[in-house]
Amino acid sequence: MAYKRKVYCGYCGNPGHNRRGCPKLKEYISSNPDSYQARRAKVKAKQAAERGSRKCGYCGERASHNRTTCKQLKTDKANYIRINNHFRQKIFKSFKELGFGVGALVTGPRVMKNDGTHRVWMVTEILWNKINVWNWYRDSGRCPITIALVEKKDASDYDLKWISTTDLPWPAILTTQAGFVKANYSTREENCQIVSPAPLVVPNSCKPDDGSDFLSEDTYAGGYAAETIEYIEEKLNKAI
Known about the structure:
Blueprint: H1 23-31, H2 36-52, H3 71-98, E1 105-112, E2 118-126, H4 133-138, E3 145-149, H5 157-160, H6 172-178, E4 194-196, H7 212-215, H8 224-236
Antiparallel strand pairs: 1-2, 1-4, 2-3
Helix pairs in contact: 3-6, 3-8
């Protein structure tokens, strides 16, 4: 039979209860409201009340859990990973089919020629780990594709000042090829067309994000992330 440890009170020393439930201590505090024991009991009660009123850092509920053990966070994270994996499979296939890899020549969103046509740029970098559904949804201008101007002949000083802007907004050709609607917020993505494709090599170290960046955004606190994920999935599933 397992040994059962007997509890002794830290105030009166009697067995069967602890200091918190000690009847003698309660009686003493009641009779001596200005005593050290009474003041100590008030501090303990205040601390317990503050713990009870704390909110979860993720869902914002006043509950007996924190961000680490939040069930809503686990649910939202699982849903984000699910739709992000779907997005990445489709968009990576689109990159491959179009030959949209490092070294590909494309018409860029800026620096037009005198005849109104767009100059040629080269894709110099693709941050594969940053290609995710949140990036696509929130701001097309943050698409992790870097381009460098190749065709500089006869470019004016006004045109050349745009060379410093080398981030390429989500190209419509990628999202269209993948079967998705266009990315949010972009007005220039239609201008990007492939002039000369390049072989696509996705590094083996490329791992999809687990939603940590998205779910840590203050914008999506208080349970708003679940609503946003639902909206992203709805937008993702729309026909072109």
